[in-house]
């Protein structure tokens, strides 16, 4: 039996109609395998604090445990480096 690691939890700051966010989701889907991470899509439109912070910068991937963020634009290589930095893989 192998060692079971805790699944990484990430948030993707987004909002409805964000075409860049759709590109970010595609990058996530191309890199992440099932069980690598749980990614919640957080719609910033429903939280004034998030809207103020991210309105001009979404999509932003965030690891709440560390607070580290990866802002758009990012590609597969950038995402892999970020995941390694926040403790995945």
Assembly classification: single chain
What's the Cα radius of gyration? 13 Å
Given the helix and strand composition, which structural class is it? Answer: alpha+beta
- Estimate nothing, just give the exact number of structural domains: 1
CATH level 4 superfamily? Glutaredoxin
In DSSP terms, counting alpha (H) and pi (I) runs of 4 or more, how many helices?
A: 3
User: What order do the SSEs take from the amino end to the carboxyl end, as H and E?
Assistant: EHEHEEH
CATH class: Alpha Beta
Distance between the termini: 18 Å
Strand content: 15-25%
- Stretches where pLDDT is under 50 for at least 5 consecutive residues are none
CATH fold descriptor = Glutaredoxin
Features:
about 90 residues; alpha+beta; Glutaredoxin; four-stranded mixed beta sheet; 3 helices; 4 strands; about 35% helix
Description:
- The chain has 89 residues and is of the alpha+beta class.
- It has a single domain (8-85), classed as 3-Layer(aba) Sandwich (Glutaredoxin).
- The protein has helices at 19-31, 48-54, 76-85; strands at residues 8-14, 37-43, 60-63, 68-71.
- The protein has a 4-stranded mixed beta sheet, covered by helices on one side.
- The chain is globular and about 30 Å long.
């Amino acid at each position: 039996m192998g060692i079971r690691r805790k699944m990484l939890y990430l948030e993707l700051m987004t909002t409805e109609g964000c075409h860049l966010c759709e590109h970010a989701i595609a990058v996530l889907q191309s890199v992440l395998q099932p069980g690598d991470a749980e990614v919640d899509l957080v719609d910033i439109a429903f939280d004034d604090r998030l809207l103020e912070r991210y309105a001009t910068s979404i999509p932003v991937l965030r690891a709440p445990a560390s607070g580290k963020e990866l802002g758009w634009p990012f590609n597969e290589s950038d995402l892999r480096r970020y995941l390694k930095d926040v403790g995945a893989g």
